[in-house]
């Protein structure tokens, strides 16, 4: 791939802003609204923000790590950026679409690149019924919460909640409980990426629950529907020697 115009965007941190100024001076800069490729400088959180911000542009995004973990980012290096972009491999991501209905009947729609998570709001555990494609699979999950994760997000909150790491091409989503009390030994499930997941909150007034799609939070939900939106595709660019598939595989062998 050859890109004639490149946009550089960066997180607010000093190290990211310093890199932004140097790269713009060295390679030039086109506004993101007109560029053929966007280079994002920051950490994974900033990459998620960038993906959401330019969702409608359908433009590839190449990240370089100026944050902490940088799982979705390439190694930061200023030399040879044009050649790296030309050699980069594409990975298509499809977000989760969350539709939430609150206890007072309001409806919300949001997209999640990593995961949709349900979390208790008070000291009392949540009670959640889980339906998969309309069929009740778990009548009552007593827990701190539960989440649905994409493969790209499986190494984030999902992994912290002891969910499985999912290869990008597996065609599955992770359904993972967060501190489940009952059923005591339920560890979650792997679902087809075509599955429609419905969470129904029991005793929603007494045991309030919030729903979060990446960084969009809806408080006091009564019902949440989650599915993969295959009509939306985001393109990430990775260096061939350190692509996302390799990172997900390597993560499963870390001590």
Sheet-strand content, in percent, reads: 35-45%
Largest sheet: 6 strands, antiparallel
The number of helices is 5
What's the CATH first level of the largest domain?
Mainly Beta
Strand order of the largest sheet: 6-5-16-13-8-9
End-to-end span in angstroms? 37 Å
SSE pattern, N- to C-terminal: EHEHEHEEEEEEEHEEEEEEEH
Computed over alpha carbons, the radius of gyration is: 20 Å
**Residue runs with pLDDT of under 50 for 5 or more positions:** none
Number of domain modules:
2
Number of distinct beta strands: 17
Structural class category: alpha+beta
CATH superfamily of the largest domain: Probable inorganic polyphosphate/atp-NAD kinase, domain 2
Proportion in helices: 10-25%
Q: Give the mean pLDDT.
A: 93
CATH topology-level fold name of the largest domain: Tumour Suppressor Smad4
Question: What is the CATH architecture annotation of the largest domain?
Answer: Sandwich
Would you kindly provide a written description of the structure presented here, covering whatever features stand out?
The chain is of the alpha+beta class and 255 residues long. It has helices at residues 14-27, 44-53, 81-87, 157-160, 244-251; strands at residues 6-10, 37-42, 61-65, 89-93, 96-102, 107-112, 115-120, 126-132, 135-143, 145-149, 172-178, 189-192, 197-202, 209-213, 216-218, 221-228, 234-238. Helices cover 17% and strands 39% of the residues. The strands form 3 sheets. It has a 6-stranded antiparallel sheet with strand order 6-5-16-13-8-9, with no helix packed on it. A 6-stranded antiparallel sheet has the order 12-11-10-7-14-15, with no helix packed on it. A hairpin with a 4-residue loop joins strand 5 and strand 6 (107-112). The radius of gyration is 20 Å and the shape is elongated.
């Amino acid at each position: 791939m050859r890109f004639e115009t490149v946009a550089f965007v960066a997180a607010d941190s000093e190290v990211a802003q310093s890199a932004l100024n140097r790269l713009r001076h060295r390679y030039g800069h086109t506004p993101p609204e007109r560029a053929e490729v966007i280079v994002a400088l920051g950490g994974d959180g900033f990459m998620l923000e960038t993906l959401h911000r330019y969702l409608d542009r359908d433009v590839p995004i190449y990240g370089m790590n100026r944050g902490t973990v940088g799982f979705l980012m390439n190694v930061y290096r200023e030399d040879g950026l044009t050649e790296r972009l030309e050699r980069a491999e594409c990975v298509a991501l499809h977000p989760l679409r969350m539709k939430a209905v609150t206890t007072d009947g309001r409806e919300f729609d949001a997209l999640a690149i990593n995961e949709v998570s349900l979390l208790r709001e008070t000291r009392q555990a949540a009670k959640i019924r889980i339906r998969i494609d309309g069929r009740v699979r778990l009548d009552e999950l007593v827990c701190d919460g539960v989440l649905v994760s994409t493969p790209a997000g499986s190494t984030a909150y999902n992994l912290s909640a002891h969910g499985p790491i999912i290869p990008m091409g597996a065609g599955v989503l992770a359904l993972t409980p967060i501190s489940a009390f009952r059923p005591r030994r339920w560890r979650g499930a792997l679902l087809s990426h075509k599955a429609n997941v419905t969470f129904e909150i029991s005793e929603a007034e007494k045991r309030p629950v919030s729903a979060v799609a990446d960084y969009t939070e809806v408080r006091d939900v009564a019902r949440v529907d989650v599915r993969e939106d295959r009509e939306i595709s985001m393109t990430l660019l990775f260096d061939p020697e350190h692509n996302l598939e390799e990172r997900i595989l390597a993560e499963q062998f870390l001590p």
